[in-house]
Amino acid sequence: MKKEIHPQYMECEVHCACGSTTHTRATVPIMKLDICSACHPFYTGKQKLVDTAGRIEKFQRRFSKKAQDTKAVAS
Question: Which fold has domain 1-44?
Fold first, then answer.
């Protein structure tokens, strides 16, 4: 390996939005995550729907409108 071209590998403190903190090694001293294994639905078995500004309802309205339009065209 060539010297002095690789990033320095150091202790890293990982902080999640849920409050979980872990220690590992990385090229940065601190990492801030939105989701980790302690709060991810795949690992916890619980699903959290985060609806920002009514996106789910907006999608459902738009989808139902398209479904009604295709039924009207087919008739």
Answer: Rhinovirus 14, subunit 4 (4.10.80)
Q: Which is nearest to 38 in space by CA: 55, 21, 58, 51?
A: 21
Residue 22 clears pLDDT 80, i.e. is over it: yes
Radius of gyration of the chain (CA): 23
Position 46, amino acid: K
DSSP secondary structure string, the chain? --TT-SPPPEEEEEEETTS-EEEEEESSSEEEES--TTT-HHHHS------STTHHHHHHHHHHHHHHHHHHHH-
Q: Of 27, 29, 31, 30, which Cα lies nearest the Cα of 7?
A: 27
* pTM value > 0.70: no
